Automatic annotation (TrEMBL):
<dbReference type="Pfam" id="PF00561">
    <property type="entry name" value="Abhydrolase_1"/>
</dbReference>
<dbReference type="InterPro" id="IPR000073">
    <property type="entry name" value="AB_hydrolase_1"/>
</dbReference>
<keyword id="KW-0378">Hydrolase</keyword>
<feature type="domain" description="AB hydrolase-1">
    <location>
        <begin position="26"/>
        <end position="139"/>
    </location>
</feature>
<dbReference type="GO" id="GO:0016787">
    <property type="term" value="F:hydrolase activity"/>
</dbReference>
<protein>
    <submittedName>
        <fullName>Alpha/beta hydrolase</fullName>
    </submittedName>
</protein>
<dbReference type="InterPro" id="IPR029058">
    <property type="entry name" value="AB_hydrolase_fold"/>
</dbReference>
Length: 270
């Protein structure tokens, strides 16, 4: 692993790279969840790099990990901003040329907005990387009651249990990381969050994954994904997994991602 810093408008973001660089192979770009960061991907980046032969790039969004703190409260459109403003800067700064996006939870929503915006807007800038595929893990395309109930419960856990101390090991500004995410989702106006309008604009193959026992969303998220995209799409519920199947059912989830990437590799290599 090579650790470094990516400079974008608004500050410095911690980043890390595994495997070959962007001039040698395509790149898997990992986009973390609402309480995640580079370190909380655990050994997933290393395993993906070894299994696919691609480079793997991960970064912590502002307010997370060792990145520049974020200004609170976050706007309710924070995922749109990350997808349409910050992510293009990050990809350019990292020198990424060809990539597949792998987004978990909030990161999956950000990835979908980015890919859907690229497909439905004006032609991308010459410096924009070629997007070869999209993997969403427990992404939210709209808000569900189960989603909000779980976010209310985790706020209680954070304020009364050991969760804050656990997260403080990974985030320089742990309260900023937690309340920036939790406060936005629990704002009554956030109930209107709905990114299904971006899905028809996605023009690359998609793999949608979700834990079979995800407390933050039902399998209706996957059904809505499949019903709204026009690109080739595969969806799968991962047995024995909750909201983080890449950690809770690691072998099966990483095998699904690796197989998806191998198919993409065959398509653009043929």
């Amino acid at each position: 692993m090579r650790s470094f810093t990516v400079q974008v408008t608004g500050g410095a973001l911690e980043a890390a790279w595994w495997g070959p660089g962007p001039a040698e192979a395509p790149t898997l770009v990992l986009l973390h969840e609402g309480l995640g960061c580079v370190a909380l991907w655990r050994d997933v980046p290393e395993r993906l790099a070894a299994a696919t032969g691609w480079g793997v790039f991960a970064y912590s969004r502002s307010g997370y990990g060792r990145s520049t703190p974020a200004t609170l409260p976050r706007p309710l459109t924070y995922m749109h901003h990350e997808a349409q403003v910050v992510l293009p800067e990050v990809l350019e700064a990292a020198g990424i040329r060809r990539c597949a996006l792998v987004g978990h939870s909030d990161g999956g929503s950000i990835a979908a907005i980015y890919a859907g915006s690229a497909g439905s807007a004006a032609p991308p800038a010459p410096s924009s990387p070629a997007i070869l595929g999209l993997v969403t893990i427990a992404a939210h395309f709209f808000v569900e009651d189960i989603n909000i109930a779980s976010i209310e419960r985790i706020k209680v856990e954070y304020e009364t249990g050991p969760l804050r101390a656990k997260l403080a090991r990974y985030h320089d500004d742990v309260d900023g990381a937690f309340y920036g995410w939790n406060g936005a989702w629990l704002d009554p106006d956030f109930r209107r969050f709905d990114i299904t309008g971006f899905l028809p604009g996605i023009q690359v193959p998609i793999l949608g994954l979700q834990g079979a026992d995800d407390p933050y969303g039902t399998d209706e998220q996957l059904h809505v994904l499949k019903a709204n995209v026009r690109a080739p799409v595969e969806i799968a519920l991962i047995p024995g997994a909750k909201h983080s199947p890449h950690l809770e059912a690691r072998d099966g989830t990483l095998a699904a991602i690796t197989g998806f990437i191998a198919a993409i590799q065959r398509d653009f290599s043929s």
